[in-house]
């Protein structure tokens, strides 16, 4: 039995205070909710109950148990080889987005179905819409360029009454576009979110996976297997994270008055200067960088808006107050 990666199971220091997964996994409780997890749980060399995080089936069973126990998701699956993300870290992004909205609303939480969030690269797992809707009642549009991922995400939404009707999954037909082609002409979003592919090629992604296997002591053969799976579009993009986020920044400027906060995770600190430069050139009125950590893993969330103070106030009045409209964007 291998030791679980510190950034996934054993070390949860740094998680958001509202994150349901701050404590160590209660495997007896999770098995009680989802018995299929049982065969994968054993006491490891450190005397702790755990699973083999190098086993994709074990990771998938753990995710099913977590989603069922904490979020009421009864039916969840992903195709073989697709990304089965570490749910605690994914939940953290959602909670920091809730804080971001509140910070622009005099500290008051913004919840409910009038809040619309666009998840770029929703994946077959559909994790962000699940957590975001179950925690805050937000409605989601999830987009992806992979037809298989889109079909699977649609199936997850349709088969779970707790999220059906609150999540719309759409296929992005152009790999060169981020928002264009999937956002309808009059659509308005309070937030966008994205966990972009950060490798620049398949070879780079494979090398990264091999380094991670060596660090964890989980290498089992000449060809590395991503710990949590992942298809090419989930792991790499031509030009890497920097190019993807440059395209996102450019595309966001085309709908500058139809979204309050554009956001993305940024894995590499080297990506930040170029992103900041692009956003300044495009006329972003405010850019924020929020540090995120889970044990020894450090990431950051970058958020930007093109709305000035008057437009932000109008947005709050129209969309975030009980009598406000859920569709009207601020005046240009």
UniProtKB/TrEMBL annotation:
Keywords carried by this UniProt record: Cytoplasm, Methyltransferase, rRNA processing, S-adenosyl-L-methionine, Transferase
**Of which family is this protein a member?**
Belongs to the methyltransferase superfamily. METTL16/RlmF family.
Please explain the role this protein plays, according to its UniProt record.
Answer: Specifically methylates the adenine in position 1618 of 23S rRNA.
Q: What is its main location?
A: cytoplasm
Whether Cytoplasm counts among this entry's keywords is yes
Which stretches does the entry tag as region Disordered? 1-24, 203-232
Annotated compartments: Cytoplasm
Organism the protein comes from: Hymenobacter koreensis
Q: What is the recorded name of this protein?
A: Ribosomal RNA large subunit methyltransferase F
NCBIfam families per UniProt: PRK11727.1
Q: Which domain of life is it from?
A: Bacteria
Q: Which reaction does it catalyse?
A: adenosine(1618) in 23S rRNA + S-adenosyl-L-methionine = N(6)-methyladenosine(1618) in 23S rRNA + S-adenosyl-L-homocysteine + H(+)
Please state the span of the N-terminal signal peptide per the UniProt entry.
none
Looking up HAMAP family in the UniProt record yields: 23SrRNA_methyltr_F (MF_01848)
Its Enzyme Commission number(s) read 2.1.1.181
GN (gene name)? rlmF
